Amino acid sequence: MSTHEPIIDIDPVSSARDGAAGAAQSGFRPPSYGAQGKRGASAPESAVRATVIDGGPPPAKRPSRIGGAAQTVIGGAIMLVGVPMLILPGPGLLAIGGGAVIAANGVKKMLGR
């Protein structure tokens, strides 16, 4: 039973050192990166072609300020309808929350953000 490897590694630094020494003796070679490694980075063919990934193309037009004002008014009206629903039967909190979200989006449109 004493010939088995321990379950818990007591000294990970020496284990890593022993593993690295074993890899060096086994003939490990780092990757050569193909023909690019032979030519060097100064060759014109080794230029990197990269694509910038962003949020996509800019929006075609800015949001309308009139539409934002209308959305703010509609959101405010929904919030006002939700207040009596707190006492009367109906989803008062849901109406107030939904109206607040609609009004906030309208304010964003009015400010152009």
TrEMBL record:
Q: Which controlled-vocabulary keywords does the entry list?
A: Membrane, Transmembrane, Transmembrane helix
> Which residues does the annotated region (Disordered) include?
1-47
Q: Which positions, given as ranges, span the membrane?
A: 93-111
Transmembrane helix in keyword set: yes
Q: Does the keyword Membrane apply?
A: yes
What is this protein called in UniProt? Answer: PGPGW domain-containing protein
Q: Which organism is it from?
A: Rubneribacter badeniensis
